[in-house]
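Q: I'm building a small set of examples for a reading group on sequence design. Run inverse folding on the following structure and report the sequence directly after it, with nothing in between.
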């Protein structure tokens, strides 16, 4: 249509996601989103929704993008649970090392800000954290670990994964983050060895 500015929704959502990821939900204004996306306020509201709606769309985009990578990483868990756990952590470490995205994890920083968020945003962030635990538990149960061992290890692996994101924002080096992963994988290897 002549005279009407066209834009790519996916590009705008990615730009908004990066803005929320970099600054956090509470510290991102609609003006910040306007600058990040190149859209005026009315275009944001009419095409992407209000701030809560846009944030939920960005959170969904983020969890889908990285969730798919985690699923691929864990797909070999039945036959190679240790390799699957390492590949799972590699997804996080690769994201942390990617200069094209902010440090940390959009989900982790959202959960930490839950007390100042709207109920629907906080609930969605908690749900995303729960998905990661469920994904890990399912993968570990597909391998040689019985449920009573898979459950606590899934909780532990999810907690370590989130701590990597938080620590990366605090400036922890890649070498230190990998050392944390190695200690966690050693503990899993010992448990797996005890089950052989």
């Amino acid at each position: 249509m002549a005279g009407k500015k066209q834009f790519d929704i996916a590009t705008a959502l990615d730009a908004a996601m990066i803005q929320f990821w970099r600054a956090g939900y509470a510290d991102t204004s609609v003006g910040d989103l306007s600058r990040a996306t190149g859209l005026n306020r009315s275009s944001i509201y009419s095409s992407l929704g209000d701030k809560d709606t846009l944030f939920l769309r960005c959170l969904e985009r983020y969890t889908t993008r990285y969730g798919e990578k985690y699923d691929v990483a864990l797909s070999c868990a039945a036959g190679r649970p240790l390799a699957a756990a390492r590949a799972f952590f590699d997804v996080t470490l690769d994201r942390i090392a990617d200069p094209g995205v902010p440090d940390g994890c959009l989900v982790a920083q959202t959960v930490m800000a839950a007390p100042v968020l709207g109920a629907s945003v906080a609930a969605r962030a908690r749900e995303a954290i729960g998905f990661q635990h469920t994904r890990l538990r399912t993968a570990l149960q597909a391998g040689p670990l019985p449920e009573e061992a898979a459950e606590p290890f899934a909780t532990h692996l999810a907690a370590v994964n989130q701590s990597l994101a938080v620590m990366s924002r605090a400036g922890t080096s890649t070498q230190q983050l990998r050392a944390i992963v190695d200690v966690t994988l050693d503990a899993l290897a010992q448990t797996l060895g005890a089950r052989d």
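DSSP finds nine helices and no strands in the chain.
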